[in-house]
Structure formats: structure tokens, C-alpha cells
Amino acid sequence: VDVPDRLGESDAEMWRGAAAILAANWTGSHTVPSRTLYPHQWSWDAGFISVGLAHVAPERAWRDLRSLFEAQWPDGRVPHIVFDPGVTERDYFPGPSFWTGNAPNGGPPSPNGADTASGNGGAATGPGGATANGNGNGAGTASGNGGGAASGNGAGPVRLSSGIVQPPVHAVGAWEVYRRRPDEAATEELRWLYPRLVAQQEYLATARDVGGAGLAAIVHPWESGLDNSPAWDEALAAVPAAVEVLRRYARRDNQVVSSNHRPTDDDYARYLSIALSYRDAGYRDADLADRHPFLVECPGFNALRGAAELALARIAEVVGADPAPHRERAGAITRCLAERLFDPTTGMFHALDVRTGRRNQARCVNGLLPLVLPELPAGQVDSLVDVLDSARFGVTARMPVPSYDRCAADFDPYRYWRGPVWFNINWLLRAGLRTHGRDELADRLRSALLDLVRDSGFYEYFHPGSGAGIGSPAFSWTAALTLDLLA
Ligand code: 2M8
């Protein structure tokens, strides 16, 4: 690896360490988030990973994004997991047989491990095996290939995937890769990606505007990326727990990391029941409001939709398309967020349950993410910065922003998205602070992030008190975004 000359010895060492992790997590066509815990390709991870690869291996960044978008559904949705056919069902749960519904009796994969995606699990094995249905939304067919959608234009390899999405951070990633090395090859990549990124945004803006106010609803906590955030507690409590289904499967995550650091079994039983409800309706989005048990407008997810439109405006200029509609859409999303999800009493944004019309009161870090939007009203920016610098979320000398309010009674420094510090979110917050000229705080955040990795390593998440690494070590987006902070 080429290490930038101006880095001191300790930073240069971090640079090499980060690059080595990305190399080790590269499969030849995509980067896995973690070899131990997440052996497939994840959607928003790929976006963050591309930001880091831009500095050390841009050709891998482009390939990674291509791999993901080759699995885009005909309706524009980009699946949250693209399954690697070389990985067995036992290595990740819920795997392809769950998402396609092709396991025997809808139950767990056979114990002999024969149910790999390319094996007899009943999943698609090649072009034509997984076809879009008549209305072109890529949802389940009669033969049960719901999770395996054909690529956007009908060409290219068919990949098995889940049927839910994640925050659209890919346009931001693609723009970062391009601007670091804006050559002809990069322009070609942008030409390929642009219509696909637009289709992804279109899907979210139309099929997912369940509330009708211009914001996209997530249909599953996994879609937020902040899986067990307290932001979903209320909405989740109303969902029946599929205890029996969970019992028939074995959770894999708990065997890899301590169960105290992961979502609970009760969470998982509800996650499964929501996913089954969506799957059994063929992953259709029509009439979601009448039948789907979980529909929430997430401030983080929607802020990232807005950021994606701004990145698309820049990409449009490169590929000869009109940037103006993208800027307009970013503005519209910003206004909807500001009107609908901001709570003046807490001074931050909160998730809105479309089914009840209620805004969740928990102070969660996704409620700070609208900071990435340049047109956010100045009063709301000031207010978010105050919260970000308060005892609840404060960036202390050593510690970046936690995922949940430190002062909340149920703040849990170990449990995943209910307290620990996450790198990707902090990277976004730092970008947001810079967007609004809060450079001093942005710099403090950057130093705290780099210190954390220097002391603890490239973990998936970190204890918000001690800084100890939690979850998977050698985590791709932590490595990738460290490179970006160092560059
Ligand atoms: C976590 O989510 C997956 C489900 O998608 C899991 O827990 O198995 C989340 O942290 C999510 O944001 C992330 O994209 C994924 C892979 O890193 O892991």
C-alpha cells in the first residue's frame, strides 16, 4: 500500500492496518463487512467501504458497487444483503432460504448444510431462475423466487438477495470514489451507476412513501441499519413475536459474539415476523398501510436520501444529465423532515410511526443525522449541534458520539445500537458538522474517532465509556472510514 507521505508513524501504521483489513475482507467481487459475523455483501456497508477503498484501491470500490447494483431489483430496490452462493446457510442467519421462503416447509435449512444458495435450497441458480413478476416490481413469483431478483436491466448475473433495503449511501460513496480519481474509467463507472442510483431513489420516493408526506417509510428495523435502536421499541412492541419460527432456526450471531452485545431473542422473534409478513406478500409495497405490521419514517434514512440526491446532482453533471431535479428533491426531502420529524422540545429529530401517527420520544443518534443536509433551517442546525455537544451525546476529549442518549435510563453501553459508538454514524456526523461550518467540533470528533481506533483496533462498535472494542474485530467500514479520516 502507498501510505501518504505526510502521515506520522502512528497514523501510517493505522493506514496500513486499515488497508490490510479491507484486503482481507475482499472476496474477489465484493467486500464482506466481517469475515466472522457477516459473510455476504451488505448494502450500506458497501457504500461506506467504497469511501475508504477510494484511497487505496478505487478499482475495487467500483467493483464492489457494481456487485451490489447487479443485484438491484427491477423495481429499483437495492437489497440489504446480496448473498454469496459460496457461503453456507449456517454461516449467517437469516440466509437466502429464509428470504426466498424456499427452505422445506418454510422451516430451517437442512442440518447437513446442503442448503447453500446454489445448492438444493430451492433458490435461484442462474438467469431465468429468478424472474420478476408481471408487474415488474421484482417481487415473489409463484415459484418462490421472491428473494432472487434479476438485475435491473435483465442482463448480467442473477444474485440471490434479501427483499428489504438499507439507507441509500451509495451515491455519496460513488461520488467520493470519482472525485479522488476522476479519470475516464471512473466516468464510465458513473455512467453505469447513475440510472441505477436514480432508480433506487425513485423506488424509495414512490413505493415507500406510505405516509404520503414525502418521506420514505422503512418496513423493517433492519432497513434503518440501526437494528435494535430504541427508536423502534414502541412500534416493535405492537408486532407479534414469531417465537416458534425463531426456535426452529438457530441464531448464528450469538454464537460469534456475546449475546449481551446483540439484539435480544425477543427482538429477533419480532424481526422474523415482520420479514415473514413482507415476504409472504411477495415483497409488494402496494397497500402496505393496510397490512404491514411495521412502518416507520426514520430521520436518518430520510436524511441520507437527501444527501444521495445532492451527490446525484454532482454525478449528473459528470454524465451529462440534468442536476436540477436532484437538488430540488434534496430540498423537498429536507423540508419534509424539518416539518414532520423535528421536535422542538428535545431539539432533535425522532422516528414517526406511520401506523399510529406518533413520534417516538427516545433520543437516538439517527435523530442527529439530518445535520448532513445543507438546507436544514439554521435554528434546527443550532439545536442539533447543541444536543450533539451536550451531556447526552457529547463528544468528549476521547469519545465520539454514542448511538443513544447517555442520560436515558435504558442506555446500554454494550448492546449494539442502544449505546455503543459506531464509526459510520460518526463519520456522517462529522461530514454534517463540516457542511454547516462547525469545524472545531468536527475536528474534535475526528480526533476522538482516530484515537479510538488507535487504542482499540478496527472494531464493529465501541464501549462509549471505556472505548473497548465490541462485536466483530477487523470490521470493514471502521477500516474504510479510518482511511478517509486520515487522508
Ligand atoms: C447489522 O445488521 C445485520 C442485519 O442486516 C445483522 O445484525 O445481522 C447492522 O449493524 C447493519 O447496520 C449492518 O449493515 C450489518 C452488516 O454490517 O450488520
TrEMBL record:
Tree of life domain: Bacteria
Disordered: annotated span: 94-154
Domain Mannosylglycerate hydrolase MGH1-like glycoside hydrolase residue range list: 38-478
Gene3D superfamilies referenced in this protein's UniProt entry, alphabetically: 1.50.10.10
InterPro entries, alphabetized: 6-hairpin_glycosidase_sf, 6hp_glycosidase-like_sf, Glycoside_hydrolase_63, MGH1-like_GH
Biased composition (Gly residues): 119-154
Keywords for the protein's UniProt record, in alphabetical order: Glycosidase, Hydrolase
Family matches, as PANTHER family: MANNOSYL-OLIGOSACCHARIDE GLUCOSIDASE (PTHR10412:SF11)
Family designation: Belongs to the glycosyl hydrolase 63 family.
Designated name of the protein: Mannosylglycerate hydrolase MGH1-like glycoside hydrolase domain-containing protein
Organism in which the protein naturally occurs: Plantactinospora endophytica
